[in-house]
Amino acid sequence: MGAEVVIEGLTKSFGRQTIWRDVTLTLPPGEVSVMLGPSGTGKSVFLKSMIGLLKPERGKCVVNGVDIVRCSEHKMYETRKLFGVLFQDGALFGSMNLYDNVAFPLREHTKKSETEIRRIALEKLEMTGLAGAEKKLPGEISGGMRKRAGLARALVLDPEIILCDEPDSGLDPVRTAYISQLLVDLNAQIDATILIVTHNINLARTVPDNIGMLYRKELVMFGPREVLLTSDEPVVRQFLNGSRMGPIGMSEEKDQAQMAREQAHAAAGHHDGSTEEVRGIVPQLKPTPGLPDRAGARRRMDRVMRGLHTLPRAAQDGIIQSLSPEEQRYYNIGSRHQGPPQGATNPQPQRSAPLPQRQPQHQGQLPADQVAQLPGKPGGRYGYGGPRQGGQ
């Protein structure tokens, strides 16, 4: 299972310019999380700060008991081996073929024989759909193949945490769909903790277990995907729907007068050019048939159902509505919720295999006294953190 990443009060500035401040969240082990935010909100800076490439001014980033912000160079070197990073452009060496690019970390950081290096490199190339392309140079392949080669290289040291910086950038919708499925399949196979920075709303709706959003130099929200997908927070709704209506402007936050003009314009029946608003919880991507079910997805659902009553009502309804009949029986919720809320249209995802024949540690909602014992903030360490002031 992947490592847990605990971030507390992280703050980063360049000179007098604060990029973000007091970011606090926990990446649950073995789960897939996405970080959203308008351009220029410091999402890539956040990833680089997590692995020590940039040094925050304040706060902690703790991985396996090591605080990346304050640890020694030796501890930093050792802890970085837990990470695999997919950079925006793949960051491949142009003079090396794909095989040598993927083998590079093994030659640099291990004492493995060339025979063992070849076995591992070819295995990761095959895992990312690049078997047979190992002799090609980066300049001879498509952008999607370069992304997959970068991901193969990120996997060769068997990381517990995978960071993906805009894996969809520069890709068409079809290739983005392939990358999305690949990330889900990888999580099913290796159970690593994954954090994806992206602008792609379809990826954000369908891939992650948890979603966060940076805006106005703060973390607006972070929590189970259902919380953000059903949120009435204006900046979250605007971003998830790609609309001009809302607090986000072209270059900076809009003032109240501009927002009032836009609302009056919309009330008069003028369309703002965005697509029809989408609300509710869409089905999450499942692993490709033949692969195991995602252990992280099962742990996440157990965790969410334990703290269900700590979530906003819209998220509660959306979660229960999205459960299959087998899952509703498994979590013993039929007597507490009589079907989906009126007018709901969300489809129910189908499981590829029966639920395991076991009893969960806690069926349904936890009593209040047990919820209070969960670590972290109300709702548990990985629970809904609530909107930050910056998202108002």
Tell me briefly what this model is.
The chain is built from 14 helices and ten strands.
Q: How does the major sheet shape up?
A: 6 strands, mixed
State the share of residues found in helices, binned by percent: 25-40%
Determine the mean pLDDT: 82
Count of extended strands: 10
- Rg calculated over all Cα atoms: 22 Å
- Which blocks of ≥5 consecutive residues have pLDDT under 50? 338-380
Helix count equals 14
CATH superfamily of the largest domain: P-loop containing nucleotide triphosphate hydrolases
Shape: globular
Could you describe the 3D structure shown?
The structure is a single chain. The protein has 392 residues and is α/β, with parallel strands linked by helices. It has two domains: 5-215, 3-Layer(aba) Sandwich (Rossmann fold), CATH 3.40.50.300; 295-381, no CATH class. It has 14 helices and ten strands. Helix 6 links the parallel strand 7 (161-165) and strand 8 (193-197). The longest helix has 18 residues, at 173-190. Keywords: ATP-binding, Nucleotide-binding, Transport. Residues 5-241 form the ABC transporter domain. Residues 245-298, 332-392 are annotated as: Disordered. Residues 269-279 have a biased composition (Basic and acidic residues).
